[in-house]
Design brief:
The chain is of the alpha+beta class. The protein has helices at residues 2-31, 74-80, 86-92, 106-112, 120-124, 168-180, 332-335, 361-378, 385-394, 396-405; strands at 39-43, 48-55, 60-65, 71-72, 98-99, 102-103, 114-118, 149-152, 156-160, 165-166, 189-192, 204-207, 213-219, 222-228, 236-241, 249-255, 260-264, 270-273, 284-289, 293-300, 303-310, 316-323, 338-341, 353-356. α8 packs parallel to α10 (396-405) and α9 (385-394) packs antiparallel against α10. The longest helix is centred in the first third of the chain and has 30 residues, at 2-31.
């Protein structure tokens, strides 16, 4: 009899955990609606944010100026966003020769335009800590693979991936300059762009064990390592290299104080990029840059904030915020006491995780416990203390499991 109850309790526990995984997924699949991510871009002509949104009533795209609410046709919209629709305007012969007295050079438009996006999943995805260091001054039009990779443990080591042997001579040559520059092993991260499909190579930016940033390149088969001077209070958390066509900066630096910087090519100076309240572990960042303005999009659970920055000074010119629509029918905080998951944007690997709900769900748990007691009496069954306590703790999950298996 004791073994029978033990097995029954084990089945109830397993059933509860399974429901805690499946029910929240099913609930959100049925009730959640996709939030609108309205395209927003700062017009260098109208000097205002302009948007493209889908009108559900008219079932068409609405292009308008946020300040004046003027609605534009597609062709008119191209004209007020010449930096974004430059290719279309060039094809139509409508590209302006100057804006606010500033001559629009088509090469500048090409070289100074870029898109940059980072999400928590991008930051936390697992990677193999082996890196490819290209020759930065090869003299060739195309970047060529070096034939080896390097790793950063207690020192830097170059390895032939075919033979798995360490190139002692090359490793020793690089280690000497690491020691000379005061690099502290082990490295916390190395950020580079290991692709041959780029115009040039700027190597890697590495965070050492003392939270200092170093720039590593290979120039004419010799090591180049330079320490980047950091302003007081800047502790780097994450780096992403960006090799723009105009070679104006090297990389983006995210620090522990939730601020964003770029490492400029002007003597490795750090320049802060205003991003409102941006948390790289929770929020998404999108930058759409052109020769006149940088459009900074910070997307979080609360909504989206868009900033327009002067491309030269990086000063905020305009700012707009779109708040997240909160569904009035979101009753999960009253029903689901917790949820079990296995994946998250802030984790590198699959592992069990528990997400707890609101304290309001305790009232629901109490009500479900009373309902279970009533049903048990109606069935003329003996009330088990384990079942009562389990439902009081696990709520709807334990209630369903006990109703099904507690017979």
């Amino acid at each position: 009899m004791k073994n029978r109850y033990s097995i029954n309790y084990l089945i109830i526990v397993l059933g509860t955990l399974l429901l805690a995984w499946l029910l929240p997924k099913s609930y959100h699949l049925v009730t959640d609606t996709a939030s609108k991510n309205i395209f927003t871009y700062y017009s260098s002509v109208d000097k205002a944010f302009c948007t493209i949104d889908f009108d559900d009533k008219e079932e068409r795209l609405i292009r308008k100026n946020m300040n004046t609410n003027r609605v534009y046709s597609e062709s008119e919209f191209d004209s007020i966003l010449p930096m974004f629709y430059s290719r279309q305007l060039m094809a139509d012969g409508r590209m302006p020769k100057s804006i606010d007295g500033k001559v629009i050079n088509l090469n500048d438009v090409k070289f100074k335009k870029f898109f940059f996006k980072i999400t928590p999943a991008d930051k936390n995805k697992p990677h193999i800590p082996l890196y490819t260091l290209f020759e930065s001054m090869s003299g060739r039009v195309r970047i060529e693979m070096p034939g080896d990779v390097f790793r950063l443990n207690s020192k830097i080591e170059f390895i032939n991936p075919e033979t798995n042997r360490v190139n002692e001579e090359k490793s020793q040559c690089f280690n000497k300059i690491f020691e000379k520059r005061g690099f502290r092993f082990p490295a916390k991260m190395a950020a580079g762009n290991p692709s041959t499909r780029k115009a040039y190579d700027e190597g890697y930016f590495i965070i050492d064990n003392d939270d200092q940033i170093f720039h590593l390149k290979m120039v004419n088969a010799m090591p180049f390592l330079r320490k980047v001077s950091l302003p007081a209070g800047v502790v780097p958390e994450y780096i992403l290299t960006m090799e723009p066509d105009d070679r104006s900066f090297y990389a983006f630096v995210f620090d522990t104080n939730k601020r964003l910087y770029i490492i400029t090519t002007d003597a490795y100076k750090l320049q802060e990029i205003p991003t409102s309240a941006f948390d790289i572990n929770k929020d998404q960042l999108l930058i759409m840059a052109n020769p006149l303005f940088w459009n900074i999009n910070v997307i979080s659970s609360k909504g989206k904030t868009v900033l327009a920055l002067n491309a030269d000074t990086k000063q905020v010119v305009d700012e707009v915020t779109f708040k997240q629509d909160i569904s009035e029918s979101a009753y999960s905080k009253f029903i689901l006491p917790f949820a079990v998951g296995f994946t998250n944007a802030n984790t590198k690997y699959i592992k069990p995780m528990v997400y707890f709900g609101s304290y309001w769900v305790l009232l629901t748990n109490l009500l479900l416990t009373l309902v279970f007691v009533f049903i048990t009496r109606y069935r003329k069954q003996k009330i088990q203390l384990f079942s009562v306590v389990w439902i009081a703790i696990t709520g709807i999950y334990g209630f369903i499991a006990n109703i099904i298996f507690n017979r």
